[in-house]
Amino acid sequence: MRIDIVSLFPDFVAQLAGHGVVGRALERGLLSLHGWNPRDYAEGSYRRVDDRPFGGGPGMVMLVDPLRACLAAARAADPAPARVSYLSPQGQRLTQARVRELAARERLILLCGRYEGIDERLVAAEVDEELSIGDYVLSGGELAAAVVIDAVARLQEGALNDAESAAQDSFGADAGDGPLLLDCPHYTRPVEHALGVVPSVLLSGNHAAIARWRRQQALGRTWLRRPDLIDRQALSAADRALLDA
Ligand code: 6GU
């Protein structure tokens, strides 16, 4: 998958590439990241990318033309067509279902705004979807883009190690089908500690019992902490039985 990021902060892309699952996905050739700076497409010696808002008020609004030229260059860098996703608090909330849909695309163009926003005419003409990562305000789209990139990178086939992938299947937090559940508790050595003992089922060697316990913990935690994530009617009969047990 190819991801193009349009941002006034080119260092941001380099930061992402150096670490963790995203870094590994890049190394393995599962993902490529390309940064595009609208300032490189701005005219004049000042290379102006923003101006004061009509109607007054604080802050600056990003100009249409540098962004339009920058987006055109990003699009043209690869023959595959790409939708433009604008990261903004006005967007639809990002969910794991949406992440799965984004991860399946061949290309993404992520548009990061700064300051008070982007001239609405650019948004209307060039943006295919607006995405928000939650109901709070960030000073720019870059952190939101990083969230999208991380979430999408780890779903690329081969991005995770075996152990990480295993945690994703049937009883994991993101089974891929069914509800997104909160994770179950995890323990490591020592078995006995002043702060408590490890649940005995995890030491039993009974893999079916362990899987059942983890699924039950995940369901129970989700039910208690994030009831909005579970539609009881949509659970499998097996999950309902675990939740009721
Ligand atoms: Cl995508 N951008 C900004 N600036 N703020 C946000 C956001 C995005 N999602 C939540 N808050």
TrEMBL record:
It comes from Cognatiluteimonas weifangensis. This is tRNA (guanine-N(1)-)-methyltransferase. It is an enzyme of class 2 (transferase). Specifically methylates guanosine-37 in various tRNAs. It catalyses: guanosine(37) in tRNA + S-adenosyl-L-methionine = N(1)-methylguanosine(37) in tRNA + S-adenosyl-L-homocysteine + H(+). One of its GO terms (molecular function) is tRNA (guanine(37)-N1)-methyltransferase activity. Residues 1-231 form the tRNA methyltransferase TRMD/TRM10-type domain. GO terms for cellular component: cytosol.
